[in-house]
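Re: the 585-residue chain
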Amino acid sequence: KAKKKLGIFATDAPMMGSAGMGIMGFSMGGGTPAWEVVSELRKQYDVQEVTGGEIKKGDYDAIMVVQPSTLDNEKLDDLIAAIKAGVPTAIFEDPLPLIQGSVTGTYEPRRNNQQGGGPGQPPPPAPEKGDLSKLWSLLGVHFNVNPTERLEAIKNELLQLQTSANRSLAPARGRFTEVGSFFTKLNDLIKKTSEYEARLNANAPLSSSDWSSLSLTSLRDSINGLDSGHPIRNFIEQKLLDPVDTKLKGLEKRILRDPYTPTPKIPRSDNFPDEFIYVGGKENSFLEGPVTSELQYCLFTCPGSLYENPSSTLTFKPLLKTRGGSLSGTTSLDNFWTGGVFGTPRRFNPDRTLYSGSNLSETIGASIGGTIQDGNQTNQINVILIADIDVLADPFFNIRSRGPESDFPLDVDNVTLSLNLIDSLAKEDRLLEIRNRRRLHRTLQEFEKSIEEAREFATQTIQNAESSIQKILQEENRKLNEALAEVQNSQSNMTQGQFMQLLQTEAAKLQKNLAKRERELRQDTNTKVKAAERQRDRKIKEKQEFIQQMSVFLPPIPLLIVALIVFSRKRKAEIDGAVGSRLRS
């Protein structure tokens, strides 16, 4: 029987490998092999590379595209046309490819493999990046961010900024026109968020320029009239705008975070952070069906999320859902990394911006189908969309080949998931049942629950301590600005130069006192945080020791009970068969 045909749509992800250099027929090396997932699929399919052009239904039984964000507009339109034509398609798009680090993420510019023009010449421009919103619009999904939730978060940040500004800048509002302009621009931004809310409620999408208009650029421009060293300008930029700007940047460019782990022998650490997410261990983690229902656990490193567009007429079925809970949320990509300059290694930033979640599960993968109009004809589309490409990475295939290691017992179903997804699109179900057979990996659910409760308690304690310190610092900032206002009120008896010198001197002194107060509060908070972490670790250790003790004492109990029963029956039988005169009284 002839193999079914699978097309690999060519992107910047080198799935098919690359040929090495050659001179006069001699290979000079330098090539890279195909990804393991491609090698595995070749055992079952006639795998061919697709470089674009017209793709009709029937040309391929299914096509697979990894990181379509690296396509130019022409190739992206070819992919969209193939989906519209009804070609079953598997799409893998990742906001932060981690294991496959040679691939750029969703929000990064494409890499240019061409060499520069020589010494002193500027590097060549990055290749064109297609408008990926066309693909998401076709599929009826919002990739990695829910627009309604994002807009609500932006509005809340602006309202909190307005409250802080009213409290701290009120004395300076009438004395500096720039401060008055700052408040005017801030009010304009808040009004704009309300206008955009009405548009979203009417199912009208927001463009990238609409989102850009909600940045804090206009607020920074409003105070440019103040000198760069002016205390009021420094306070607005550093104390008011910078923290809000950091939070706003991660509301779009972000990844999921969930600390759940089914493998206590692989604890969370700097090298295995909460952004490495396990799917499984919960009733609705996988969609019912032969493709995913037999999976136990899958691991996704720094994945994105998917949201159904309520105005879409297509069917959106979640395939893969996170566990959720009070400790889950998202992490900003804006400051995810630290280091990587002057030869220092790049690593995860311990101070990266974290956002609390809604306690609900997030969707990482979905099946999308339904009827769509393609010119004069109507076609059925069949698409599987996964917000991660590292699930296809070579290390997972290597682990499956050699088995989990004793010091790193990672046992996940990433390989089975990857192959099952392609089989379902190509209607190739011969190996589904065989692939789904595996030894069950059982966990101590009550033990995991108790550990999760201990972690939640510690996290809540840490969050409360941080919230408390922020409130105190806000009050200290208010006092600082009141003191500056008193200095400003004494301006009438001074020249402009004398006033600015006094203002800067007083501001420096007050800022020094504020920094000292903040250090004291941080030390106190760190003490509370360490105490909460020690209590968490102690509770976890107590649970572990209890389980270990029970594993020693409980197993012999059934055997002892059986032995007692056998002994009693044997004793009774001996007594019943003996002569009465020979029995002891």
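The chain has a mean pLDDT of 85.
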